[in-house]
Amino acid sequence: MTALSILYVILFYVAMITLVVGVVNKILQYIRVPAPLKIAVTPAPITKTGVVYRFFTEIVLFNSLFRATKWTWIFGWMFHLSLLLAFFRHLRYAVSPDFILWPLINLEVVQSFGKYAGFAMVIGLLGLFGRRIFVDRVRYISSPSDYLMLILLAAIAGSGLMMSFVNHIDIVQLKAFILGLFFFDWQNLPTDITLLIHLTLVLTLMMVFPISKLLHAPGLFFAPTRYQIDNPREQRHLSPWGAELEAKDGRNS
Amino acid sequence: MADFDTPEIREFPVIPTIMEGAMSHSSPFIAGEEFQSDMGFPSAENVGDLIDGWKEKFLELMQDKLSKYRSLQVFMDTCVKCGACTDKCHYFLGTTDPKNMPVARQDLLRKVYRRYFTFAGKYFPKLVGAIDLTEDVIKQMYDYYHQCSECRRCAVFCPFGIDTAEVTMAARDMLAQIGYGQKYSNQIIPKIYKIGNNLGLPQPALADTLEGLEEEVEDDFNVKVRYPLDEKGADILLVTPSADFFAEPHVDGLIGYGKVFHEAGVSWTLSSKASEAANFGLFIGSYEHMREISLRIREAAKELGVKRIVFGECGHAWRVAYNHLNTLAGPWDFLDQNYPIPQHILEFTKDCLDRGILNIDKTENDHMTVTFHDSCNIARASRIGSEPGSQFTTPREVIKAVCNNFEDMAPETIHDATFCCGGGGGLLTDDLMELRVKGALPRMTALKHSIEDKGVTHMAAICAICKSQFTKVLPYYGMTMDQIVSVHQLVSNALILTGQGEEADESEDEAA
Ligand code: SF4
Ligand code: SF4
Q1: Does the predicted interface ipTM exceed a cut of 0.90?
Q2: Are residues B215 and B118 located together in one domain of the fold?
Q3: A228, B50, B215, B342: least buried by Cβ within 10 Å?
Q4: What is the Cα gyration radius of chain A?
């Protein structure tokens, strides 16, 4: 194996571990910290099914954002949808043909949608970047990391597009490398500069995920304002520390 | 103090260009030692100074809050600075100060969170906009967390449900515990503990006021309607904001509740111990104080032996009652489980109207065209009825049942997109008059347009703070203070009491 391939194998594992451990840690923290009070933003669902529906409209349609600002919604939604499509396309490099979903992943539509999604992604990101620069309110709240995150994502999309449309790389070798990572049977990585850039940026993204605002992905599910069922009169809600307080003075009996 | 210009109402509402520092001078009085100690909060030797070791204490408190409130922990992490909330706050729209944009308000705390509690902020502070905790930062927090009425309008539009009110509450509580308590709230809460209500009206004064109301109603209608106080064995305990006892137009609402109870034939009572629905514990972000204030209601209900609890017209009080009374002062197993616990007075009245037991003459309200102001806490933190959204429909249905002329304001300013009156969340104090007037701009704009376009004459509300705030700010915008009315005042106007003498009701009572 080449030294470069070894380096990327190591980087890959480091990034993967950072991502998984970091995000799991955060999720565990969110689970551990109690929500002492009912704070659902109403109108809120009064059943569990209702909460699932509420999340569906938020995750699939970005409902609140749609109500808030159409421009951010268009660009933001475009970007996230493209991300999803690109993700499906990339499964081809990470899944072996005997995997049960392979026929689905290998569908022409999935592959070509994924391919062109790259353009939509770049447009979405440019739009978001433009908003950050040109709208005074958004400029005011932006930190360097907010711009860098957009640049990082755009660079990933850009390098990906390069490989799809300009200088094709050795996909067979790449796939061998990726599958090798999963089965601990390490293989050489094609030494194409575009690919190396693309991979480096993705690994960077994975590593900053748990320490950045990308935490909005898991965090979304833990906002009591959104996941709580609106039934405070019907069902008593009490946190462990609230119960402790009660037990101490016995005034709720 | 009153040295500011009232913002101009425009033909179309516009999102203003930001003006840094536009409201940096706005800061409510800091509580002196006498008020701080009543609340169990520390104070420095001089008012306006921080206590010794404030910095460590603040970070310690922050750690504590982050481990006790999932909302705070999650909200600190998830904001992506998308900007969706930036034009949603009435205080930003009215003052143009960028620190009044919800995300910027959260950032006052988030920057410190990042600096001391996150990897990125510890090692790359500049990159992620993390800052050191300094006295100046604390000062800014005090100023701007007291330019938030905890109305949650921002939370409706945030893609992640980030509720700035939660951040404001946490921040205010931490500030109070390092010597920066707000005078207005910290002066009021101990009055509840000592006397029973925010206004400090003792039992005899209450009894006197209520007797006066009984006489007034009897004079007007020739029917004896009772306004009982501390009556053991009554079925219903009415808990209502103390402003209802004397302020205008609040008191007309109280008269209305009494008339509805009278016609429904239920026995009810007020309690001097729980003669206040308001719970400023919410505003200052203190679970303990909010619980203490709620527990009075439990004690009063037990002492009086009531079977039901009904709340009068008040916004944040209903938020606390609806969402938290069960948590803080429950379980309510000793009350009648056939009724919602607690119940809103509008739920009670709506039920009476539906059952047709109220004799209504709508024409009594024909001199008005009424619109309805959704109070933020009711709209975005409660229900008034069994269905989601009943907090919007129930009040409107009641109004329409007693008034012939009803018109809504612009759709983007009602229901869960309603704009705060500008005086909620513990800001209803004279030392914040400029903020209150400017923060009322979006609501005043919508009202003015509905007056011009739809012939609206009056705006009805179901919140004591909204009513007081509008009475104060309407004149700044060229309208008159009597244009704000209580919903139960409208009910009262139209309700014909059984046995009401025909010739006895010649009084032309315009909303005085
Ligand atoms: S809660 Fe209301 S007052 Fe506070 S920042 Fe949000 S919109 Fe503004
Ligand atoms: S809408 Fe939510 S995520 Fe967007 S800037 Fe405001 S608080 Fe942050």
Answers
A1: yes
A2: no
A3: B215
A4: 22
